Amino acid sequence: MADSETLKYGLAVLLFVGWTFQWNVHLLAILYGKWRLYRQRQVGVEEALSGISILKPLVGVDPHLYENLETFFNLDYPLYELIFCIEEEIDPAVMVVRSLLEKYPKVDAKLFIDLYQKQDVTYIIKTEIGAKRVGVNPKVNNMLQGYEAANYELILISDCGLRMNRDTLKCMALALRENVGLVHQMPFVCDREGFAAVLEKVYFGTQHAKIYLTADLLGINCVTGMSCLFRRSVLDEAGGLKSLGQYLAEDYYLGKIFFDKGWKTSICSQPAWQNPGTYSVANFQARMTRWVKLRSAVQPFIVLMEPISEWLILGLIMSWAVTVIFDWSPVAFFFVHTLVWFLLDYILLRIVQNGPLPFTKTEYVIGWLFRECTSFYLLLRAHSSPILTWRSKHYLVKSSAQAEEIHIRSIV
Ligand SMILES: CCCCCCCC/C=C\CCCCCCCC(=O)N[C@@H](CO)[C@H](O)/C=C/CCCCCCCCCCCCC
Ligand SMILES: O=c1ccn([C@@H]2O[C@H](COP(=O)(O)OP(=O)(O)O[C@H]3OC[C@@H](O)[C@H](O)[C@H]3O)[C@@H](O)[C@H]2O)c(=O)[nH]1
């Protein structure tokens, strides 16, 4: 009996230590975010800016694609090329890119597409169908020809749903100091209408930002492939882009190459502005489920850590722990825990947004509660099946380095 009491007490104390640690993570993220984001420190020399090849892997269109891509034709940067990569000639994104190429003939921009050649733009003819399928990752397969044809030592991989401010590329390039091999942007979202937009902003500005900023501060690899600028020679030494084709979480392994070789990685002071024109609660949840699968495959400890880094689960567990240790009221404790967490999240979100929020405080409360209360469901959903769905493709995830594409009629 005494032993089980000791065990219970020991567990409660351990949880209490973890809970205290969580507040440190929260506070660190706030302080680091305030110090790091939207502060352009002149770390590099502007005259020394080198050429950058920007790879844009595209699949399909959404109502914002044209305007998002157009921002890349108007960057304030002395030397860059745009390389659009599209898997299939019948993809409607081809038309969008072609109309932009026609509108901006002076911008160095190319379109790489399988199996087709036209005179007005550069198309690469693949001699063998599937010759460029180097692995399971469709994004890597899609970018490969463009990567091989890129002219510059610096490569920016930039996803299709992003828009970029005129000065962002310069900001990223200036952050690429002598010892920094890779600069990535912390994912965030543009101001858009509707509840799904509130939800995405709340998630990327709170829970995601908290871990992302702290990981960057502590030098932990959290590179997101959505927008990252890196030194090509380092990747080539490790086998080139094709070596990443075997991983679905190619971004994590890209970052790992730089970490393993002793390079520093750094976030840009500007976040990545995701602005897809098609968004919904279901889309967000499907994407988050996929991301949970990716990170759990990469770092299995996350399966355990992730639930207890969330407000609700941690709050409930801690309400029990503090009654064991201090005999505090669990209800009062949970209330204070919630209030403080909620306020810290709001402060962090305001820092990441760097301006007024595009929604009311009531919408924030609803978005925050919805996100927090559904996070456990999403974790369960992610861990309940090894099948990962990305766009129209399905994969069976076996381990961090092992996944295979599967063909199924429908996903229940
Ligand atoms: C009590 C606090 C303890 C903190 C424990 C942290 C548990 C992890 C919780 C959430 C993970 C969020 C990670 C955010 C970045 C990853 C975003 C993502 O899923 N990206 C995928 C798609 O681009 C990508 O393919 C996945 C890559 C794997 C990322 C692995 C990241 C590990 C980060 C661990 C950070 C620990 C920070 C601890 C701070 C003390
Ligand atoms: O089959 C595909 C799927 C996706 N892609 C491209 O890959 C990029 C990212 O795709 P999505 O927007 O669907 O997905 P996410 O924003 O969730 O991606 C994120 O998570 C998975 C990581 O591997 C990516 O690097 C990261 O950007 C886009 O530019 C998309 O066009 C392909 O080229 N082919």
TrEMBL record:
Subcellular localization: Golgi apparatus membrane
Keyword Ribosomal protein: no
GO MF entries: ceramide glucosyltransferase activity
Alphabetic keyword roster: Glycosyltransferase, Golgi apparatus, Lipid biosynthesis, Lipid metabolism, Membrane, Transferase, Transmembrane, Transmembrane helix
InterPro entries: Ceramide_glucosylTrfase, Nucleotide-diphossugar_trans
Positions of transmembrane segments: 12-32, 297-322, 328-349
UniProt pathway: Sphingolipid metabolism; Lipid metabolism; sphingolipid metabolism
Record's protein name: ceramide glucosyltransferase
Species, as recorded: Ridgeia piscesae
